[in-house]
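Need tokens for this chain, all 501 residues.
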Amino acid sequence: MSNIRVTYSGLISLAIRFLSLFTGLAFTLIVTRQLSEEEFGTWGLISAIIVYATIINPIINYWSTREIARGQESGKTAFVSNGIFSAGGMFVYIIIAFFVGLQSDAKLEILMLATILIPVLFINNSLNAINAGWKPHVVSYGFFTFELIKIPAGLVLVYFLQLGVEGAIYAVFLGYLASIGIQIFFGKEKLRGDFNVKYIKKWIRLFWLPVYRGIPGIIGLSDIVIFSIITGTVVGVAYFTAAKTVGYFVNYTRSFTTGLYPKLLESGKTEYLQETIIHLLYFAFPLIALSISISRPALFVLNPIYEIASPVVIILSIRALITTLNMTFFEALQGIEKVDIKETSTFRDYIKSKLMLFPSFQLVRHGVYVGGLVLLLSFIDYNEGNQIEIIIYWALVGLIVEIPLFIYILNLVRKNFVLKLEKLTLLKYLIASITSFGFMYILMEKYLVYENKLFEFLPNLVIFIIIGIGGYLAITYVIDNRTKILIKSIINEITRKYSKK
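Here are the structure tokens for all 501 residues:
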């Protein structure tokens, strides 16, 4: 047994993710400030196409996490096999990139250059899956290293050498190499075993399940590709991508649930979900309030041309919160499923299991979302004058689809878990978020001056953000015992770590 500590892994991962929020934004600033709308749209398009190439990646990664969490030694087999599978991913990427490049105004040679990201992405994802099964916080170490290395690489390649999108691709490539090195260092114990063909036979026999699970995500992330093909331009993608950068802050709270899935696999005890959700919402409420309150100045920081997309940020932030809860609930349901432990489990057993529940509903969810987007773009004439209006509708389609799914999955979780969410506690978090960030917003409206010079505007914005975050922490510490306990446990953990040195 790996003796996974859910809260400890969650706090470590969350702290690193918060740090990587700033490093990620630093890289995004380098890119958005140096690239034109067309170039930044191409950058967003590359990220969307890569998703198609990784559809075969979960064939191995999905099972390796479950196996390692249960004490099986499939790490080396998974690592080597993923390196081989990456060749197939590269082939898929090249085909799709060629087609999309012909249908849009994105430069084909830049799309093709991004092929170099596929093998390092496959290997990095393999190490993520291996480490997630026994030391979940190591995944965050790799992610932080990836984000950290991108900054100097981006400065040199994009800012100083003016390589544009090509420089961004090379910077991300170097970031993945660094992440791979860190994860191999921490995960080497799970890579020392023998290469065992029995695992490959199992993965091939059950390949349909992780592939089926991946299809909904592929459909959902096709929105950018579909938008580019139907409109024939990547300019709208640039605005949507910029809005996601700010609106998806709340997604960083998913890292707090890092230890939940392997812990449920390891122990099967259902009480871990309730505490995880309460802690997750403690961080989620202020982050969504932050996204909404700084939507305009944050987009201005990225590039003043994206400032008009602030309404899109508000819609996306609400959607991101619901999506985060949906993903956590689905992970919990899969964590208590034991069908894959039994060697005698049949195809019918897998079909009836909770492992199929998630992809089935995701398939419906993303199918409706993409279908709605296609209808929207088919009936609206796209032009430069109404692009923000269309992007707002695009974001609304995604939000509307999330709501019924959330209601269903919440009812399903209540049938399988003890879920008493202490409404008074959550109300305290919500009120504290509205109060602190509402006050911050009022101060910004009155005193924040929009300077075109980044190094004059950004420090002023950071001061207001500190006021909002500090106010939230102070209020919750005073009115909520859970916050006091959480902060004391963090201090005790840090003290214990340093006392051992």
